[in-house]
Amino acid sequence: MTSTAASTTELENFVRSLPKAELHLHIEGTLEPELIFALAARNGVALPYASVQALRAAYQFTNLQSFLDLYYAGASVLLAERDFYDMTMAYLRRAQADGVVHAEIMFDPQTHTVRGVPMETVFAGIARALREMRDTTGMSGCLLMSFLRHLSEQDAFDTLDAALPLRAQYADVWTGIGLDSGERGNPPEKFQRVYARCRELGFRLVAHAGEEGPAAYVRDALDLLHVERIDHGVRSEDDPALIQRLREQRIPLTVCPLSNLKLCVVDSLNQHNLARLLRQGLCITINSDDPAYFGGYLLENYLASAKALNLSREELATLAENSLHASFLPAARKQELVQRLRDGMGPARPNRGDEPA
Ligand SMILES: Nc1ncnc2[nH]cnc12
Ligand SMILES: [Zn+2]
Question: Which residues are Zn(2+)-binding (predicted)?
Answer without folding.
Answer: 24, 26, 208, 289
